[in-house]
Write a structure and sequence with these properties.
- It is a single chain.
- By secondary structure, the chain is of the alpha/beta class.
- It contains eight helices and seven strands.
- Strands 1, 2, 3, 4, 5, 6 and 7 form a seven-stranded mixed beta sheet that branches.
- β1 and β2 form a beta hairpin.
Amino acid sequence: EPLGRTEWVKLYGLLTGHEKEAEDAFNKEQAAMEEVQNSAAASGDKETKTVAFFYITSNGQANVRKSADYLPKMIEMAGGQYIFKDLGDEEEATSTISMQMEEFYAAAKDADYLIYNSAVGGTIETVEELLEKSGLLSDFKAVKEGNVWCTAENLYQKSMALGDFASDIHVMLTEEKPDPAETKYLYRLK
């Protein structure tokens, strides 16, 4: 669950004698997640947009999150639908799967939004930089419509910022021309 990554703060608070501060920090993230869910539910009359979350590996494969991972759950909390509905075995310890680009193309070419995960390969600024990683992406619906986003490079070091990241996803999904100042950990590629 998305809050599972944040809940560790309670253990650290217990170990360091800062239980109250840890509980307050956790409650803040929980409230942020609930706010995103409530906002997504309030705009639920709109068509649910599909999202592919991925990066291109050094050997040219697409690395995607398993369907049961916390990131696809955050996409759903924010009002979207993860493009890979039943991907991966929940019992396996890994949270990602690498697939050949042709397989990724077949499954994700019609996604409404692409989110490029910059955690491994570093951030990119433009769609052209993304297309240098794989020219197949030029045929994707999201690329043609300008709905390609990238995570901030330090997102995974910010487990206490998942509420903000879920909010960023919701802004991406609901605002036609979001102000870049509205998102902290997600930005649209130029």
